[in-house]
Amino acid sequence: MKRKGFLTVLGMVFLLALSTQPSQAANRDFDKAKTIRIGSLGPVQLPQGQGIHNAAKMAVEEINEAGGIHGKKLELFVGDTEGKPEKGITAMKKLVLEDKVDVLIGCYSSGVALAIQPYLPQYQIVYMATGTASIDLTNNVKKEYEKYKYFFRNMINSDIRQQKWAAKFLVEFVHKKLGYKKIAILAENAKWVHQYAPALKKDLEDAGLEVVFYEMFDVDVKDFSPTFAAIRGKGAQWIAQIVSHAASIPLVKAWQDSQSAPMGLCDVQGMDSKFWEMTGGKCLGEITYNFIARAPLTEKTIPMWDKYVKLFGTNPVYTTGFTYDGVYMLAEVIRQKKSLKSKDIIDGLEKISYKGVLHPEIGFDKESHDLLEGRYVMPMVQWQEGGKQVVVWPEQFKTGDFTPPPWWKK
Amino acid sequence: MSTLLDILVLGTLWGSLYTLISVGFTLIFGVAGIINLAHGAFYMLGAYLGYTFMSLLGIHVVLSAAMAIVGTSLAGAVVERLFIKPMRQNHAYVLLITLALALLFQEIMYVFFGPHGKAVQDFLTGELLLGNVRVTYQKLLTMVVSWISVAALWVFIKTTRTGKSISAVAQNLDAAVLVGIQPEKVYLLTMGISAALAGTAGVLIAPILEAVPGMWAFPLFKAFAVVIIGGLGSLEGAILSAMLLGYAETLVSRLVSANYPDMVYLVAIILILVLRPRGLMGRRAQ
């Protein structure tokens, strides 16, 4: 009886040990690996998640068609984060522990990526984030390099890079070119905007613009009519919207119904090629920066865009370009190092300068693993008649001229 | 001046819509004594049926709206017969089953239409200019149809034989049975009317906002607040408090921030529960 009890306790300890020391594949020996396994994270029901998984699939197939990496094929595994932190952790664990992937890529929502990030040192697996903008993610790397060195982001952070780009657009295009001075900032109250919106306000005021309306609204707000009435009452000449998680359709409808000033800055749902259809054309005149557009950002951009449309029957979304380039960058480093060890992949990524579809020289800051300053472009795209998406700024990537909303007279 | 007009117009719009939603919610409570947590789901169903008939199938606007309202009303009747009737006296059961049904409806919409909102075209295009304030015809239509619906309900209950039987069951069930009224038929009819009112609100609001899974929770919250403030089971109270809350939340959104309208509701609920627990027009407990 004593012996049986002892064995039971031993068995439980063994099981407990197994559960805390999970079996995983990251850091495998390259020569012994039959295939190279890539785990793609993203919400499969949302366009942003589909943009991640489709881009990863396309890149993996292209690399395999070109002979793989030293003759080894890439295998893609998909994890559904559902856009929720707890589901993101489960999806990541499934990819690492069951599918035994060598590297991770993707993720939409900074909240999800922040939940996943602390697990990376435990599994010692490299993760390239391609759809998350909060600077907290890369600040973590900067503050605790040894712990968070596994994390890289080739997307553009919202707090500094997107914000500076937004200020540049509003000052150079809206103010200097169009002659507008009174700006309304209408931002959702979400993690990625907490530093972005106040810093943008300050930059605009420093540049001599007048911020006549400034509000960070709750993402649950559905009725924007009073807000646009208030903006109109303040005499705003331009509305800078910063929206990702909030209800874009009611926002755009209320904007058009109120016939307020032109609206243009960032509307993540408005980047979706189906947004025209989703709003019944009420997004006519709205501008949002995109992270990819059918414009010659590099010579690879348009061919990739056209192939993606042919394969998936829809336009790339903002996560697509980052993920596509991300898979190629990871493959390039693994090829160079002929290794799946995280230390080698990290070393390779810290030194890489990659010509992708989004920029000719993509590289990372060695301390924060964030995208290097100046290594990105965010074309400002306007919805025009017939649902056309036209790049109106910057000049070198323009595919058409800015057209004010039909009701707007300067 | 234009600020005041903004508040008046938008407050009337939302007040009218909340009236339409809350009258149905309080009606079924007053008559059958049930708190129907699926009430918001009927609002969502109305919006999605309107979207399906009009935007996907291309059926004429008026016919689409009528079919969506009838469809929602039938769904309400089916829910009453299959899920509420067997256990009507068990309040906890009714709360749980109607909540479960609301979540089920949400999942169905999610599966069939996806997680993103669907835009529904305006029934009427164009706008009315009141000074500097623009009122789209869709918003005007929403106000007018809401009030016509509520007035029609009022006339139906006060003047028709069937309507009076609803009123009788609400006032005294035993006496109603003694004079030959069949309560089960009344419950079924009331649920159908209640769902139709919620469905009408959904059909009308979809072009202004959107049809999206999860939209059911917002009207349910509003209806709850309205009936608590107006007085449980009181149609007059529901109308009064819906209008007051419509104006109050628009005032706060317009002058303070779009983030605080819900705070208005919570403060109003606390005040009413402390100062006048039976609500603005509720009857004193015997």
Can you characterise this structure?
The complex is a heterodimer of chains A (410) and B (286). Chain A contains 15 helices and 12 strands. Chain A has helices spanning 2-20, 47-65, 85-98, 110-116, 120-123, 135-143, 145-148, 158-177, 196-206, 225-233, 248-258, 275-278, 301-312, 318-337, 342-351, and strands at residues 35-42, 73-80, 103-106, 126-129, 151-153, 182-188, 210-217, 238-243, 264-267, 287-289, 380-384, 388-393. In chain A, helix 3 (85-98) packs across helix 4 (110-116), helix 10 (225-233) packs across helix 11 (248-258) and helix 14 crosses helix 15. The N and C termini of chain A lie far apart (90 Å). Chain B contains 11 helices and 2 strands. Chain B has helices spanning 2-32, 39-56, 61-84, 91-113, 137-159, 161-171, 173-178, 183-205, 217-230, 235-255, 261-275, and strands at residues 127-130, 133-136. In chain B, a hairpin with a 2-residue loop joins strand 1 (127-130) and strand 2 (133-136). Chain A binds chain B through residues 45-47, 189, 215-218, 221-227, 229-230, 232-233, 247-250, 253, 257-259, 269, 278-280, 282, and chain B through 2-3, 6-7, 10, 14, 55, 110, 114-121, 127, 132-134, 136, 139, 208-210, 212, 218, 250, 253-255, 257-259.
